[in-house]
Amino acid sequence: MTRMIRLASVVPLLLLVTGCAIDFGEQAQHGITFYCPGAGNVDLGDGGVRAGLEKAGYKGQVASVTWTFSLNPAIDQAVRVNARLAGTRLARYIEEYKDKFPDGEVNIIGLSAGTGVAIWALEDLNPDYQVENVVLLSSSLSRDYDVSTALERVKGKIYNYYSPNDVVLTTFMLPFGTIDGKLGAEGAGAAGLAVPEGSTRVVNIRWRPDFERFGYNGGHTDATNPRFVRHHLSRHILSRDTATAGETNAASPLAQAPPDAD
Fold this sequence. Notes:
The chain is of the alpha/beta class. It is built from 9 helices and 6 strands.
């Protein structure tokens, strides 16, 4: 009996660490968007993303990639191996999906530390597979993280939404480090993501006051508000290479283009 009790307590932990297999449902025939939540599940699941995409007319499946093992964001941010493992797991999900639905479009949305999961999945993806577009929200990857390898697995673009007003990234993250392990470094979700030299496929989108009408006030999880997802993020999911007003390849001195002017 004692052994059974111990096993019962261990199984939920293993599920949190390894995640559950994704069941491709009927909607998957219309495409799939993988959502990688933030550390500690601060965004409370994919509800906002799912609702916003559905309101925008998205017919595909939205599938969460559970990777955190703690309800404490600081712990998940500091113990980075689990995010790395989840990236590998997501790569296998993508390959499995494309094998089953060769014409199905795959997109990825990641929030905060979940953006590390998204990028590492692309890096681990078999070269024979590609996704359409990738959307990074409030990314806790370091701003100078090299996404060149990840871009090779993306047909469209990597869209990085960032806000200098993100207190989580500009204050609380610094002592714990970025999800790629740099202490005291600026996050791509606060300062923008470096654009590989010669590339036009990393698009930094800085927070603007007009985003507030859709619930994105510049805070760490605001971009998952269903209204913002519907009116802005869905543009990158519903059609390939859709442009958004205010897009620019520049975000910081690391970018290969003139500074952001909005």
